Amino acid sequence: MTARTTHLDAGVRSALQAVSAAAKRGFDDPGLAELVQIRASQINHCAFCLDMHLAIARKHGVSERQLDLLSAWEEAEEVFDGRERAALALTEAVTVLTEGFVPDEVYEEAARHFDGARLAHLLALITAINSWNRLMVGRRIPPGSTEW
């Protein structure tokens, strides 16, 4: 597959990079941040982002077992703790939005595991990766590409 276009306005790129970086800093859990970004990227079929975030997750010590079972996290209760499961459920709810909103029970479960600031940063992180996914998939940026 070749990219449809590699043109991306520098201001857009910088703004999204800044949002992503701020969200990760405020969330303050690098491994879980990568799991969230990988899960959204799986749902959105973004090979570029999957390739990037899988490598980063490994650098942050995320286990191969978690990476292997991430797409079936709901069935892998012994692999993901309650905090991780709440973040992944929120990721799916924000990414898919099939009901037009995030269900109260999903949000409330996440709020039980994350204080207000971390929850806000988690929502920003989910929003940022969804934006990146759509930019990369829409332009068909292949995995490993250095021109995007």
TrEMBL record:
<dbReference type="InterPro" id="IPR029032">
    <property type="entry name" value="AhpD-like"/>
</dbReference>
<dbReference type="Pfam" id="PF02627">
    <property type="entry name" value="CMD"/>
</dbReference>
<feature type="domain" description="Carboxymuconolactone decarboxylase-like">
    <location>
        <begin position="29"/>
        <end position="92"/>
    </location>
</feature>
<protein>
    <submittedName>
        <fullName>Carboxymuconolactone decarboxylase family protein</fullName>
    </submittedName>
</protein>
<dbReference type="InterPro" id="IPR004675">
    <property type="entry name" value="AhpD_core"/>
</dbReference>
<dbReference type="InterPro" id="IPR003779">
    <property type="entry name" value="CMD-like"/>
</dbReference>
